Amino acid sequence: MAKRSHIAVISIPAFSHQASIVEFCKRLVEHHDHLHVTCIFPTIDAPLPATLTLLQSLPPNIHCTFLPPISKQDLPQHAPSPVQIQLAVSQSMPSLRHALSSLLSTTSLDALISDPFANESLEVAKVFNLLSYIYFPTSSMTLSLFLHLPTLHQQVPCAYRDHKEAIQLPGCVPIQGRDLPEHFHNRSSLAYDLLLRRCERLSLAQGFLVNSFSELEQGSERALQEYTNRVYLVGPVIQTGSSSDPKESECVRWLEKQRPNSVLYLSFGSGGTLSQQQLSELAFGLELSGHNFLWVLRVPNDTPDAAYVVGSNDDPLRFLPDGFLERTQARGLVVTSWAPQAQILGHASTGGFLTHCGWNSALESIVFGVPMVTWPLFAEQRLNAVLLTEGVRVGLRPKFNENGLAEREDIAQVVQDVMVGEEGNEIRSRIEKLKVAAADALKEDGSSTRALYQFGTQMANFLGQP
Ligand code: UDP
Fold this sequence. Notes:
The chain is α/β, with parallel strands linked by helices. The chain contains 17 helices and 13 strands.
């Protein structure tokens, strides 16, 4: 992009989406130094503290602004978190228009890049005559699912989970209906309706910037490019963490004392929770496995994404089985609610990651070459687990019984298989190769950097710039 350009970027009130899009913006301005970016965040109640920390170290050509908050009390109290987030974003659209209009009164704005869950903003972009793109913070397989949903909706007559054949998205591993995100399953729900409308709106975008890389998702990338030649795989865009995190020293100090590759790190993302029964079973499974572990513990909840919008003030430690901390103190560290994930995954002592398969966590595990135990909870995490275990085969899935519970013996077994088994060794060698491919993709001549330049060229062409 030769001439100075200004882009507005819209996210949603969820930490992992905000963190991903901010990291992407940093990469964008690093490679297009004529670019100025304004990030706009719809907000529920108040800006997220973790995001505020993240924004402390931005380059001078990225500015951020928070839209007037939507009160959590004005959102349907019993609606699932994604619905609450979606409604808050919809209610923020008048403020977004206002923010864009005041930006346009002082500067010339060329394009808008939106999170897929804020894609009403594509309609706003049309009003202001802006180019519009989607920054897709998850896999190209999920993008493919979203683009195909309007067709699937017509073609599949029954509930997706009862569909006998696997769903075959072009270039992707086959997906069983039960592995689709949970909001696909009740087709008469508000959540499904919002999702379907959001997927239909994707056709308004001029292009898609996807947080993935060619070597990870070659098949779906190729198939998507047949569908639209404006898909750019620009990842892995991951968080490198903040060195001011007070928990960093505690975790790193503890990891320093462990043997290389000996620690299983367990985390369910920025808001994932287990039920009390599952939390206890996991604790007993860890004890049985005999392996070292570093567990980010959150207060249990039967709704797995309950802590996504509002966390609990309870002490998570009191939900552990009696005597667990004493029995495991020689080989385990439990930290509450939050840990410096990038530093932990990057540490030589970490040899496995039991993850809820949020896309950022999956990419971070790949970037640091850490084999995974895949334990998806909600959203598109089951889809990510399918890609990780059946597509690129860098993780193993634990067994869940007919009640959806992973039992202690099965947990101990899968931990053993990933940490030291023969299968674990094969996984380790596959993820090592993927780690190298991820680093290569981000080099100056790597596939993701080239895709970022192609995006810039295409935008300049649209704008009629030389
Ligand atoms: N994260 C972290 N510490 C934690 C939990 C999460 O640093 O204790 C970061 C993690 O590194 C990742 C993001 O929060 O970048 C979680 O994103 P992901 O897509 O994996 O899951 P989500 O939070 O959307 O469920």
